[in-house]
Amino acid sequence: MGGTPAETPQASVMVDLIISLDGYASAEGWPGWWGLEGPEYLAWLDQEAERNYTFLLGANTYRLMSGMSDEAAAGGSGFSEEEGASLTGLAAVPKVVFSSTLQEPLTWPNSELVRGDAVEAVRTMKLSGDRPMSTLGSLSLCRSLLAAGLVDRFRLVVFPVITGRTGRERIYDGYPDVALQLVHSRTFDGRLQLLEYIPTVLDGPPGASRT
Asked: For this protein, what is any one GO molecular function term (predicted)?
C-alpha cells in the first residue's frame, strides 16, 4: 500500500520545577518544599515516579538528591514518612547524570553518567528513544534544554510563599523569551498549584519588528 511513511516517534522532554511565587527554587533557612508539602502532593510525586520517566540531572543535583535518598533509606530522622518514601523511591528510577567531574561507577542505583554535551546528548536521546524524560532540579540544564528547543512540556508546582529576602537560585535568570500554552492545572492540598504548559521559545517580544 502507498502513502506517507509514518514519522519516527520521539521521546518527549519535560522541564519539571518547584518554585516560590517570586521565582526561587529554594530559600535559606526554610525546610524542603518550603514546609508546605501535603499528602496529596506527596502521593502525586510517588505516582509520577512510576510513570516510566528517565530523569535528567546535573552533578550538583545528583550529589544532593542521592545523599538525601540514601539518608532516607537509612531511616534518617530529618524526613517525614511520606518524604522518606518519595526520596527512597528515586533509587529505582532510571537517571542520566551530565557531569565532567563525577567518576564512575555512580553509587546511586540506576544512574548513568554522560560526560559529553548535555544538549546534544538529550537531542540524540529524543530521536533514538521512546521513553519520556523529565528534569530533576538542575536549573542550568533546564535552561539549556529550553533554549535549544528540546522541551515539549514545561511544568511548575508553585508554592504560595514569597522569599524575597531569603530566596536562593532564581529560576528564570538567563532564560530566553518563552510563550506558554496552558494544557493542565491542578491544586494540591488546597494550596499548591500545578501548571503545565507547552513552551515556544521566541526570538523576542511578539510583534516586535525584525531587522
From this structure: 5-amino-6-(5-phosphoribosylamino)uracil reductase activity
Closest CA to 154 of 130, 129, 128, 185: 185
Is the pLDDT at 181 greater than 70? The verdict is yes
Which grid cell is 10?
Answer: 520521539
Ordered structural domains, the chain, with CATH: 13-201 (3.40.430.10)
Residues 6+ apart with CB under 8 A from 14: 53, 132, 133, 134, 135, 151, 152, 153, 154, 155
pLDDT in tens, 155-174: 999 999 999 999 999 999 99
Residue 65 cell numbers, joined: 538528591
pLDDT, residue 77, reads 61
Categorize the per-residue pLDDT at 208 as very low, low, confident or very high, splitting at 50, 70 and 90: low
Q: Please list the residues that pair with 154 across neighbouring strands.
A: 15, 197
Q: End-to-end alpha-carbon separation of the chain, Å?
A: 48
CA–CA separation, 10 and 75 (whole Å): 39
